[in-house]
Specification:
This protein has 2 domains: 198 residues, no CATH class; 233 residues, no CATH class. 51% of the residues lie in helices and 5% in strands. It has 21 helices and 4 strands. The chain has a 4-stranded mixed β-sheet. The longest helix has 39 residues. The protein starts with a helix and ends with a helix.
């Protein structure tokens, strides 16, 4: 059946487990797609019947008219109807949607129930992540399936982040257990096509019988090889370019942004908050000297905020980072020269975004990310399954706590915040809270001339806290 490489792969038990799970997840996504399709079709029919016959929109309202109150009758009615079926309609950014398409076809409703930053080119309801997100955000889907769907998404994400492309038998059993819980759930069973065949496929995959899945196996191998080749080529070419001409990194940064997809790390600079930007750092400005306190992982605990949530353990499990010297150089160059307040790294799962964030946050002398580590004053980790990491109050408290550790002068300006800080009040008024505890104190902070250089704040997996950081004001101000 297979060539030498495939046979070699099947001899490695952990790699075989990984491939079996990946194929099983692919099969699961195909199996559950009629469930997603069927309930969205019910929703579309229900709204269509409620609204009756309406003329199709001729002016593409959501694209051309920011004020939703001035939309045409059809788009306005569909918007109001869809809001009633959305579990959190406040997160919707209407001008990013395609309102004129909603009445035409039920699958055009997928965008309404997706994360608003999601690349529309990858908004395929046959993708497991897309399906599960739609289930949880559309109230017509039965809530009974959500706990099983959450467990399946955790397994899927863990698998996607496996840099070694290997998993042990315990993890494999967990993946298949979570798959079976979803496909055997009562609401799901009614929509499955050829349920017996699906279950037989899962049994074969769990038992490691891959020979009947040759096409899927080769597809996974090809994707893996393509990623490896691309990353190797990028490493080689970017290293050559940097050695030849440092200035070309700005162009390369744009190429990388075009290539990489979805999940994000935000590296924000706050130089503008500490002083007027004077970003001629490529020469003439001496680097910040690392003290003993800037070795290893950034200190989270602060006496000013003793109850602040600690998240560094999510970074400590990352092993040594191999390669990517060019990326650290590129980040340093971009952060020195950008006129904006940060850099956004986007990439699909498993490309190493969290590893980069962890490496900078916990860098030691001699590590590739040490120059960036010297400038780091705060970080946050968003975990979709850890609700506390989504809370605005905890996010603001963590930033204020770590900034007070790393900019001593900041402590002189946050008394008002310290005396009245309340995480629940911050959750209800995040903009007022961040102004009071971070923005205004930073503006009042006096930094000595020799220390007036940009500082970094890292937010890992920003997309996983999307509901917290979805406000347009936040996007402009960060």
């Amino acid at each position: 059946m297979a060539n030498v490489k495939v046979k070699d792969l099947l001899k490695n038990e952990k790699k075989k487990n990984y491939v079996s799970c990946m194929i099983a997840l692919h099969k699961t996504a195909e199996a559950v797609s009629p469930f997603t399709d069927g309930i969205l079709q019910q929703l579309h029919q229900q709204i269509s019947q409620q609204l009756g016959s309406q003329n199709l929109c001729q002016q593409q309202c959501s694209r051309t008219i920011r004020d939703v109150n001035k939309w045409c009758v059809t788009c306005g009615l569909w918007r109001q109807a869809l809001k009633r079926f959305h579990t959190n309609p406040r997160e919707l950014i209407w001008h990013k949607l395609q309102s004129w398409e909603w009445p035409k076809q039920h699958m055009n409703l997928v965008e309404v129930f997706m994360l608003q930053h999601w690349d529309k080119a990858n908004m395929d309801a046959r993708d497991l992540s897309v399906s599960i997100t739609v289930w949880k955000k559309c109230s017509l889907f039965p809530a009974r399936i959500f706990p099983f769907a959450d467990n399946l998404r955790k397994s899927r994400n863990k698998l996607a982040h496996s840099a070694s492309l290997e998993i042990d038998n315990n993890d494999k059993q967990t993946v298949f257990h979570n798959i079976n819980q979803v496909i055997q759930q009562a609401d799901m069973v009614n929509y499955l096509q050829n349920s017996l065949e699906i279950q037989n496929d899962m049994n074969d995959l769990e038992n490691g019988d891959l020979f009947k899945f040759e096409d899927e196996l080769y597809e996974i191998l090809n994707k893996t090889n393509q990623v490896d080749k691309k990353l190797h080529t990028m490493d080689s070419k970017l290293t050559e370019v940097h050695e030849a001409q440092t200035k070309t990194f700005r162009t390369i940064a744009n190429i990388i942004r075009a290539l990489l997809l979805f999940s994000v790390i935000l590296v924000a600079t706050i130089a503008v908050k500490l002083k007027e930007p004077d970003i001629s750092m490529a020469s003439g400005i001496s680097p910040i000297k690392a003290s003993g306190e800037t070795m290893g992982c950034l200190q989270e605990y602060s006496p000013s905020f003793p109850t602040s949530l600690l998240l560094v353990d999510y970074f400590k499990h990352h092993g040594p980072l191999v390669g990517r010297i060019w990326l650290f150089k590129l980040l340093e160059e971009e952060l020195k020269n950008t006129k904006k307040s940060g850099v956004l790294l986007e990439a699909d799962m498993g490309y190493g975004k969290s590893a980069i964030a962890a490496h900078i946050t916990c860098a030691k002398e001699g590590d590739q990310g040490m120059e960036l580590r010297k400038r780091l004053i705060a970080f946050h980790v968003c975990k979709f399954d850890v609700k506390k990491t989504h809370q605005a109050g905890i996010f603001i408290q963590r930033l204020a706590s770590m900034i007070s550790n790393n900019i001593p002068e900041f402590n002189e300006t946050i008394n008002d915040c310290l005396h009245s800080f309340n995480t629940e009040q911050c959750d209800s008024d995040p903009f007022g809270c961040i102004d009071k505890c971070i923005i205004f104190p930073l503006k009042l902070t006096n930094i000595s001339d020799e220390r007036k250089e940009y500082r970094l704040i890292i937010i890992d997996a920003l997309d996983e806290c999307y509901e917290t950081f979805s406000f347009e004001k936040t996007s402009r101000d960060v």
